[in-house]
Amino acid sequence: MKISGLDYNTQRERLILPEYGREVQQMVDHCVALPNRADRQRCAETIISVMERMAPRSGTSYDHKQKLWDHLALMSGFKLDIDYPCDINEARKMLEKPKPMSYPMKRIPVRHYGHMMFEVFNLLKTMPKGRERDELIRLAANQMKRDLMLWGHGSSDNEKVASDIANFTDGNVQLDLDTFKFDRIDLQSPSNGNANCDKKQRRRK
After folding, report:
1. How many CB atoms are closer than 10 A to CB 88?
2. Mind listing the pLDDT tens digit for each residue in 136-186?
3. Which residue of 28, 149, 156, 169 pairs with 173 in a disulfide if CB–CB is 3.0 to 4.6 A?
4. Strands (E), the chain
5. How far is CA 1 from CA 7, 9, 73, in A?
6. Angstrom distance (rounded) from CA 148 to CA 153
7. 136 close to 123: Cβ distance less than 8 angstroms
8. What is the value of pTM for the model shown?
C-alpha cells in the first residue's frame, strides 16, 4: 500500500552499505552526478570525513582510510570518477558471494554414533595392543553409551555397546563386561528438571 506523502524504506532503493545510512548514500549519488571533476573530488573527500566520524576506527590509520575509500567506491557502483588516494580494485571482491560448500554425504551404518566414531572403529581394527589402545577403547565405549542414552531418551544397555563395538571393529575389540567399568553418565533432560521443580512447588503448598 502506498500513501501519498509517506515514504517507506521498503519502497526505496536497497542500500549497498546500510551501516552508513540513506543520507550518506544520497551524498554519494549527488557526488557521482557532479559534472566537474574538481567538484567531485572535493565532495568525495567531504563524504569520507563524514564516514570517518560514523565508522569506528580499527587497525592502522592507513587501513581505516583504505576501507573508507573502498566503501565509497562500492556505494557509487564504481562510477565515481575521481583521483582515489589508494587502490580500490580489491573493493570489488567485497561484493562477491562465497561459493556454496558441498554438504558431506558420507554413509555410515548407524547415524547415532556419528562419522567420527566410525573413524575410531577403523583405527581400532589395526591398532596394536597396549595402553594407548586400551584408553581409546575406554573412551569409545563410554561415548557410545552416551550416544545411546541421548538417542534412547536416557536408556542404555552395556551389552548393546559391547556388541556394537565388536561388530564395527570386525571382532577386534571384545569388551569384558565383568571387568570393564563405564563412566558415570548423568544426562538431565529439561523435562526431568521441570518435574523436579513441580515437586518442590507442591511440597511448599
Report:
1. 17
2. 999 999 999 999 888 876 667 899 999 999 999 999 999 999 999 898 877
3. 169
4. none
5. 11, 13, 34
6. 8
7. yes
8. 0.47
Q: Among all chains, which residue has been given the C-alpha cell 566520524?
A: 53
CA distance 9 to 4: 14
Q: Which residue has the cell 551389552?
A: 159
Whether the Cβ atoms of residue 15 and residue 6 lie closer than 8 Å to each other: no
Q: How many other C-beta atoms can be found within 10 angstroms of the C-beta atom of residue 131?
A: 7
Per the structure block, which three cell numbers stand in for 202? 507442591
Q: What is the DSSP letter of 177?
A: T
In whole angstroms, what is the distance from residue 123 CA to residue 126 CA? 6
Residue 160 to residue 151: CA distance in whole angstroms: 13
- Whether the CB-CB separation of 37 and 81 falls below 8 Å is answered with yes
Calpha distance 87→89 (Å, rounded) = 6
